[in-house]
Amino acid sequence: MIIKGKAHKFADDINTDDIIAAKYLVSTDAKELGKFCMESISPDFIKNVEPGDIIVAGKNFGCGSSREHAPLAIKGCGVSAVIAKSFAAIFFRNAINIGLPFLESGDAEKIQDGDLLEIDLSIGSIKNITKNEVYNTQAFPKFLEEIVKRGGLLNWVKARKRSR
After folding, report:
1. For 3-7, 14-18, 91-95, which range has the lowest pLDDT when averaged over its residues?
2. Are 20 and 159 in contact (CB under 8 A)?
């Protein structure tokens, strides 16, 4: 699975309240939440993000509460993947549940805001087209690629049940 988009760079320790403020938790609609994604730390983010773009961050991305609203907001604003040096465990799990691809890469710091990236989930490569560099990461297991293609864990389980 190939993902291509522009990088939006963030720092270390981006927490779930940074991703989506608590005042918006009255909704679980991804598109609605997406309208306010990153509002508290980057007010112009939603104006600049385009469908398919990629969030790039430092360590401990998605720390904080266990709410699934954070990855929903990211997906809802059109972001197609998140690359970070590391992820908080609960964000990692919630991203899988909703079908949002994420990649851990020590090379995330080499990526700059606005760089054009191409991710190949099946082989675990991140190509920085802007800099003509390739960063390696762990390949996405096939079942996780299927979960992403189906739009989340629940849809994947339903499809498996139908095929039996």
Report:
1. 91-95
2. no
Give me 17's structure tokens.
């309240």
> For the whole model, what pTM was predicted?
0.93
> Measured between alpha carbons, how far is 66 from 32 in angstroms, rounded to an integer?
19
Give the bridge partners for 116, in sequence order: 6
The residue behind tokens 């306010």 is: 36
Domains of the chain by start residue, with CATH: 2-162 (3.20.19.10)
Q: Please state, in angstroms and rounded to a whole number, the distance separating the CA atoms of residues 103 and 85.
A: 8
Tokens of 156: 């994947």
Give the residue among 10, 125, 122, 128 at the shortest CA–CA distance from 70. Answer: 10
**Torsion region of 29: left, alpha or beta (phi above 0 gives left; psi -120 to 50 gives alpha):** beta
Around Cβ 44, how many Cβ atoms within 10 Å?
A: 9
DSSP 77-135: TT--EEEES-B-HHHHHHHHHHT--EEE-GGGGG--TT-EEEEETTTTEEEETTTTEEE
Average pLDDT, the chain: 93
CB 144 within 8 A of CB 98: no
